């Protein structure tokens, strides 16, 4: 069962990671890790690699009520392993959002993002009151597809020319999960 105590800096914590919201003061660590992870992220993802870019990025995740950003941090060191953002949050009868995420290179293949995604799902379907989350993934991004498939998402469809990424409109698969589908 994830830890939710107020004695921890995390919104929720598992055995190896905790999730917390972004802070403006995270700029230096985030941008350094993003810079070192460029080869891992390309061509799928382009997180901010400068203080100025981070300030714009973080402001949206901190201040915009239609977004919620979560840093996945190793509990033993507090070091960021990656990030998971819930975007396009709609309340009312829809109660949904779209997730985007990325692991930093030093955390790839260690299962930290899988644990972090489970914590974010429980937080989104619990305290945030959402019912559905969607992940839109380019078909060739096997690691990303494996992450959501392992978390219990189902493939719901294919959207040609869906998102503008790296200078072009890219096809995406639509994966989704609802609170009723959440594993364990």
Task: Summarize the topology.
Elements lengths: L11 E2 L3 E5 L5 H10 L1 H4 L9 H13 L4 E7 L5 E11 L5 E8 L8 H14 L6 E6 L4 H9 L3 E12 L2 E11 L6
Parallel strand pairs: 5-6
Antiparallel strand pairs: 1-2, 2-3, 3-4, 4-5, 6-8, 7-8
Helix pairs in contact: 1-3
Describe the protein in words.
- The structure is a single chain.
- The chain has 184 residues and is an alpha+beta fold.
- It has a single domain (12-181), classed as 3-Layer(aba) Sandwich (Aminopeptidase).
- It contains five helices and eight strands; from the N terminus they run E-E-H-H-H-E-E-E-H-E-H-E-E.
- The chain has helices spanning 27-36, 38-41, 51-63, 112-125, 142-150; strands at 12-13, 17-21, 68-74, 80-90, 96-103, 132-137, 154-165, 168-178.
- Strands 1-2-3-4-5-6-8-7 form an eight-stranded mixed β-sheet, sandwiched between helices.
- Strand 4 and strand 5 (96-103) form a beta hairpin.
- Helix 1 (27-36) crosses helix 3 (51-63).
- The model has no long low-confidence stretch (mean pLDDT 92).
